[in-house]
Amino acid sequence: MTAARVAKLEELLGRVQKNRRAVAEVALGGAAKMTPVPAPAAAREAAAEKAEAEKAEAIDAAAVDARVRAPRPTPMEMALETAESSMDVEITVDDGPESTIDADGETLEDSIPTAPVETRAPVVEEKPAPARIVPPREPEPVAPRAIEVAAPKAAAVARVVSRAPALEPATFGELIDRTLALRPKR
Amino acid sequence: MAIAGFDPGGFFEFDLARGAVRMRGGERVLVLSDAVLAPLVMAAVQSGDLTAVRKLGKQLGEAAAAGLSPSAPSSTPEVVLGRAADVLSLFGWGRLRVERWGDALVARVSDPPALDSDHLGVAALLGGMFSALVDRDVACVPVGSDGTFLLVDPSIAQQIWKWSRAGDDVGAIVSRLAAEGA
Q1: Nearest-angstrom CA–CA distance, A138 and B7
Q2: ipTM of the complex model
Q3: What is the pTM of this model?
Q4: Chain B residue set in contact with A, beta carbons under 8 Å
């Protein structure tokens, strides 16, 4: 790293600290010079409720986005990281957890990075509780059970409406024909 | 049984001048005693040829059917059987009664001439008579020894005769019969 570059970085750092200080002075000074105006009770309660609601929404959104957000950096982040890594001096400012804004404009806080996988304590897998041994049940004695069958009713299921009349031979020829048609039963 | 329309009076014409007896239709007949006829019938039974007796029966049937209007097959059984019974009586062959056992017909001849012990002569005569009445072959088979006959088709006459000789009565024989194709 050249001396010129170091000087440039120091100048840049000084400018950043100067800007932060200026912003803090303006913010603190403004607040000290302002005359507090007593707000109405209703306005104070409405403001408190609004703040609580925004807080609850932020918590919900964070909980949801933390689950949805992919842990992998976006291509833009990867590009920036590559550009920054090319610099010899790394400047890290610990401003607390980084905040991002989701698509709804809500401010989200990243979760704290966990330790590398190698440094994690071995996860002790809980052994499944031994299955409770249930003594085999004695087979219940099977008692004969009658199958109920619909019993036919007393009424006749079929009724003869008309019976073919036993035709008497009307002529002697018919009488003889029936007689001569008789054969020994087989 | 008196059947209207059949008048036995004048059925035979005795022509004493010529010495001939003729039936109403003109056929000549002979008056014979059963004592003469019986040996002839016995001889026919032993020879197995009762054609002559059967032919006599056909003449009786034709005599019974003569004058029937409508014809015998188209007339009621009562009319036809009444005529047959009257003609049979007129020729001295006994009194005929016919019974129905289901579809079977049983003819009973009371006081028949004593021709043969098995009544085969009367059976042949009745067969000839009924055949002439309906114009088709009818066999009469003796059942028992009391002048009872079963009217059957000639093709089963031998079987009926065997059952009868074995001692079966009319009821037993009829129970063994059924309508053809049933």
Answers
A1: 102
A2: 0.89
A3: 0.55
A4: 72-77, 79-81, 100, 103-105, 130, 133-134, 136, 138, 151-153, 156, 159, 176-180
